[in-house]
Design a protein that fits this description.
alpha/beta; Rossmann fold; binds NADP nicotinamide-adenine-dinucleotide phosphate
Length: 347
């Protein structure tokens, strides 16, 4: 253990953050998590092993000035995970960009005021690295998303602006703490809480037959427990620095559907028609205009492209090893059935 002071985790109720809290408690750390509602609303956090003695939940909202002063007070380490993760929103500026960017600055201001923080670990995203895959390119930590906007993949835009704002803050204010960012690709895995995360919802939608066919689309995936470990390694490893692209493997939709079928989930209405050829891609691009606006945009900017992500830095510098994505996906599906997000399949 590198600190006996509480580790602050913002947005502790979230899919990734709850796993960070669990892992921190399991390693003997004390945790101060921020939530948006009364702490009693989070029994899945309060019931974690070690929580009764070492977990404190405090209320904080990203859009209130000074909201995190109390949360970071007396902490050496702050993990800032809170940020809206939604693809289709009414107003991208107020629903995504403002809480992501202003919230990040608010948390960093609180860390500056506290005087004692040594390091902030920011949960950024592959979204801050690229808006779309490029078939001939392997993306690394050196890449920045320069394409997203309020009209084009606004979630990706919010994450890019938020991470940029964090690095700018460090440049401008030269605080005593340093900043490390973790940039995961799609995070799958079992959930500690009852909400259905946006990434797991995408897997659920594939299983519920929402997509008409198998598209030429592939994603980088990483298990939520590995993402939690990455945050803790970034805290514990004194020499950690800069950005860490956190992706285990990429998987094509073809392989994902084949995995689900061969893993005994074949009674779900999985997509059957193969639309992964050139004609299918053209058809899907056209059809994407009938989808909710930002889902359609995501399809158009990702379809027909191969995603490649370099995870060498996080393995080499933080010593992170990844669980196989296939295992993670299968556990995700079983977990969604347990939480009632997916009906048990009828055989
Ligand atoms: P999540 O389950 O939706 O968690 C988001 C967290 O942010 C929740 O605790 C939420 O609180 C909090 N939050 C949202 N708006 C807030 C506001 N205005 N004030 C205070 N708290 C607010 O999503 P997640 O997947 O765990 O995402 C956590 C972080 O990882 C995000 O920064 C996301 O961009 C990043 N990320 C996620 C993925 C992925 O595939 N899941 C991949 C890459 C990066 P409530 O519970 O009250 O809503």
């Amino acid at each position: 253990m590198i600190t006996s002071k509480p580790v602050c985790v913002t947005g502790a109720s979230g899919f990734i953050a709850a796993h960070i809290v669990r892992e921190l408690l399991a390693k003997g750390y004390s945790v101060r998590g921020t939530v948006r509602n009364s702490p009693g609303n989070y029994p899945y956090l309060l019931g974690l092993p070690g929580a009764s003695d070492r977990l404190e939940l405090v209320e904080a909202e990203l859009l209130s000035d000074g909201a995190y002063d109390r949360a970071v007070e007396g902490c050496d380490y702050v993990m800032h995970t809170a940020s809206p993760y939604e693809i289709n929103v009414k107003n991208p500026q107020t629903d995504l960009v403002d809480p992501a960017v202003n919230g990040t600055e608010t948390v960093l201001e609180s860390c500056l005021k506290s005087g004692g923080v040594k390091r902030v670990i920011l949960t950024s995203s592959i979204a801050a690295i690229t808006d779309e895959p490029e078939s001939m390119k392997v993306f690394t930590e050196k890449d920045w998303n320069t394409m997203s906007s309020l009209d084009r993949n606004p979630y990706q835009y919010s994450k890019t602006l938020a991470e940029r704002a964090a690095w700018d803050f460090i440049m401008r204010k030269r605080p005593r703490f340093d900043l490390v960012s973790i940039n995961p690709t799609m995070v799958a895995g079992p959930s500690l809480g009852p909400s259905l995360n946006t990434t797991n919802r995408m897997i659920r939608d594939i299983m519920k037959g929402v997509f008409p066919g198998i598209m030429d689309i592939n994603w980088g995936f990483v298990d939520v427990r590995d993402v939690a470990k990455a945050h803790i390694l970034a805290m514990e490893n004194d020499t950690a620095s800069g950005r860490y692209l956190c992706s285990a493997e990429t998987m094509h939709m073809n392989a994902l559907v084949a995995l689900l079928k061969s893993s005994g989930f074949d009674a779900y209405p999985l997509p059957k028609i193969d639309l992964s050829g050139k004609v299918g891609t053209l058809f899907m691009k056209g059809l994407s205009f009938t989808q909710p606006r930002d889902t359609g945009m995501f399809i158009r900017t990702n379809i027909g492209r191969t995603a490649r992500y370099d995870n060498a830095k996080i393995k080499r510098e933080l010593g992170l090893s990844f669980m196989p994505v296939k295992e993670s996906i299968i556990e995700t599906v079983k977990d969604m059935v347990t939480w009632g997000h997916l009906p048990p399949q009828k055989k």
